[in-house]
Every structure is written in C-alpha cells, then in structure tokens.
Specification:
3 helices; 18 strands; elongated
C-alpha cells in the first residue's frame, strides 16, 4: 500500500493528462484528488449558507436549519423538514501538455428535521429550546483511471488506480437561548469506508501475462461531538425607529478518534478468454484494527442584519496536519477558509402579492483559502456563489402556518494554479426544500 501511494503521488499529473486524453475511465465522478486524506470534502453548510459563500458562525434563521453552528437551533419558531440535493460538474485541466477531462456527479446533500420545544413559562422569560436531527455526507472518494506506459525494451504496461468510499454523519443536536445568548451541541455517529486498489498488467500480442492487484479495504466509525455559541446585539436607529441585529458566533470540534478495521490483499490473477478471474497467488492481512484521527476545527464569524440586508464574515481553521490513518500521515496540511456573504430581501411594507420577486431573497458570496490536500505545492482554493430563496407559497393570513421554500445555490470553485501545472474546476447546482409548519401543537378554539 505504501508503494501504491508513492506511485500515484509521482504520476498524478500524468493521470490527469490521461483523463484528458480519454483513457478508460468508468466512474461517473473522477477526482484523483480524492485519493488523499478522507477524500473530497463535501460543502459543509446548508443551501442557504452556500449561496452566501458558506457563512455559518453568526448566521441564524427561523426559516432554515443551520447545522454547522447548533447554537442557531433555538431561533426556530416552527417545525422544519429539509431535504437537499446537489449536482456538480468537475473539470480537470493540465497546462503542459494541454488536456481536459469532465465528469458529473449527483448526491443527497442532507436530510434533517428541526423543531422548537415549547415551554410557556420559560419562553416568557426569554428562554427558548429547540432540537434537530439529520444525516449528511462529509466527504466522498470516487475515481478510476487507466494509464498506459511503454517500458524501454519491454512490452507496454497498463496501470489502473481506483478508489471509492467516503464518510458520513448521523446527528442529533439541541440548543438553548437565554435572552441574547445561545449555545448548542451536535452529537452522533460518524462512519465511512475507504477502498483503494492498484492493478498492473503487461500488454503483449504474443505472451499472456498474469495481472497484479493490490487492494486495501477499510471501515471506520465512532461517536462525534461538536458545539457552537452565538450572541446578538439589538441596534436601534433613533431616526427611523428600525432595529438591526449584530450577531457573533463560533463553532468547532476537538480532535476525535474513530475505530477502524482494515483488510489488505496483494494477489496475482489470471483472466481466461471468458473474463473469469483465477487467483494464482495472494497474501492477506485481514481485520487489522487501528484508528482514524479526525482533526480539530474552529470557526468564528459575525453577521449584521437589517430588514432588507444581511452581511456576514467567517474564518474557519482545521488542523488537518493531525489527521492519521492507522497511524500514518498523508499528503494533507492545515487548512483555513475566509468566507464573505450577503443577502438582499427587497420586500417592503404593503408590497402586493402579485410582485412575487419582491418576496425572493437574493444571495451572493465567495471564499478563499488553501485546500487541505498538499502534494508538491499547496493547492489554493477559491469560489463564488449565487443563490436565492423562492417561496413556493406566499402566506396571506396570520393563521396560515405552512411555509414552503425552495432554496437554490450555484457555486463555482477552483483549486490548483499554474505552479501545480493542473487545475480542478467545479460547477455545482444545489437545491433544497424547506417545509415548515406548527407541528405538535394542540388545536384551540373559542
């Protein structure tokens, strides 16, 4: 496995060129970068935040669930069910020689259910409580690349590098706010798997060679815990008598250890004319126990919100240099991100319902920072995002409790530059439904 890691590190630029030259690639998504660490990190925030560059530390909204900072849950006024999907188109480019490869992938972004817990006496004192539960992916590994090479004085050789897997979280969280201060925690189970293999075969018209295959399958899982806090200041304009909110927030987690098992096989195989595989020789190491060290992370930020505008700024730092897989470090480094976002809500008093687009929230943002994967050089990563919240039904009366919103975001991201000779661009379309209502309430009448 160590030799396979050295080999793919050395020829990664060649593999990307091979993709551009349309060698055999069978995976729907094909990202050689997902070979390292825990794979490609899935955008962390919900669709609302993604439209604003991913800001989350100081963001709180009663119409959506911000699971990155669980302190925001206590702002929920109704039960909210959220479901989101995303489709990304990934393009790998090599500068020298010039080559290009494009792939597409679709995944479920998250499923979650958030709800307030009504406590009449506590609510009168400015104390609110809410909970949330859900499931989301954290990272994904998916690539399969075929590469051919002519050996001097020997036949040609074909190499295939393949990987699959990723990591997910099933979580439940709670939050309590006491007047202007709120705090919350998420806890649950983090689980995943990594399946890597490298195959080598000689190509000859006269001699049929056996094929070598080295494969490692790993499964891991364990409990996790993260938390967050928020504090808000209410600002009043003496002239207009209007209020605005300045909210500070922080979220993070400590370094955590996941239990893991690993199977390693090195084998020589032969294929008959019908494609059936026969094992000639093999060496196994089954059910090896180990640990996966998941790094600590901390994010801080603030938002300023008026009736029609919201502005936010976040800074996030993750200690990926502490990541270990069965005691071994990989080609990863400490990463950080700066995120900036804004939202514009054009609605004014007495706006007629026929002016639908005045009820739409418009979002924009960007982020910048080094990727957590580091090969020869650090990989700069940046992105722009646009988004919106589109009401599926406009509430026309006080007693209407149902509220349905389609949140959408378009993100363009890039990592790598001319120093790394190759660049990966991603265009992502995300759609999320936020369905809310007054659940668990007892009907009353006079």
């Amino acid at each position: 496995m160590h030799l396979a890691r050295q080999t793919i590190t050395k020829i990664l630029p060649v593999l990307i060129v091979a993709c551009g030259l349309q060698h055999a690639v069978f995976a729907q998504e094909n990202s050689p970068y997902s070979r390292y660490g825990l794979g490609d990190i899935v955008p962390k925030a919900n669709i609302v935040s993604r439209g604003m560059g991913g800001i989350a530390a100081g963001y709180s909204d009663y119409q959506s669930v911000n699971f990155i900072n669980p302190a925001s849950y206590s702002n929920l006024k109704t039960t909210i069910f959220e479901f989101a999907v995303e489709t990304d188109t990934r393009t790998l480019k090599s500068l020298s020689p010039a080559a290009r490869y494009t792939s597409t992938n679709t995944i479920i972004s998250y499923i979650q259910l958030g709800f307030p817990i009504k406590l009449k006496n506590a609510n009168k004192k400015g104390i609110f409580w809410a909970m949330n539960m859900g499931l989301r992916p954290v990272s994904k590994i998916n690539y399969k690349i075929s590469y051919k090479e002519k050996l001097s004085g020997l036949d040609s050789v074909k190499k295939i590098f393949e990987g699959a897997g990723g990591i997910n979280q099933a979580y439940i969280g709670t939050s309590v706010s006491i007047k202007k201060f709120s705090f919350g925690v998420n806890g649950g189970y983090m689980f995943g798997n990594k399946d890597y293999s490298s195959q080598l075969s000689f190509i000859s018209d006269s001699v049929q060679y056996a094929r070598s295959n080295n494969q490692t399958k790993s499964n891991f899982g364990g409990l996790f815990l993260n938390g967050g806090v928020q504090y808000e200041f209410i600002l009043r304009n003496k002239k207009t008598k209007r209020e605005s909110v300045l909210r500070f927030g922080a979220y993070g987690n400590l370094k955590q250890s996941l239990s893991a098992t690993r199977d390693v096989v090195a084998e020589t195989v032969f294929f008959d004319p019908n494609g059936e595989k026969f094992r000639i020789d093999s060496v196994y190491a089954k059910n090896t126990n180990g640990t996966v060290i998941y790094p600590a992370s901390l994010g801080v930020g603030a938002t300023y919100q008026t009736l029609n505008w919201l502005f936010g700024l976040d800074f996030e730092n993750t200690q990926w240099q502490d990541y270990r897989f069965f005691g071994q470090s990989e080609s990863v480094q400490r990463s950080w991100k700066v995120r900036v976002g804004t939202e514009y809500f054009p609605l004014k008093e007495n706006t007629p319902y026929k002016k639908y687009f005045n009820f739409v929230r418009y979002r924009f943002g960007f982020y910048y920072g080094p990727d957590y994967i580091k090969l020869t050089n650090s990989l700069p990563e940046y992105g722009l995002s646009f988004g919106g919240a589109f009401p599926l039904k406009l509430r026309k009366g006080y007693y209407e409790t149902q509220n349905s919103i389609l949140n959408a975001a378009i993100e363009f991201g890039s990592r790598g530059d001319s120093k790394t000779n190759f660049r990966e661009n991603t265009l992502r379309f995300s759609f999320g439904f936020s369905l809310s209502d007054l659940w668990f309430g007892r009907a009353k009448y006079q």
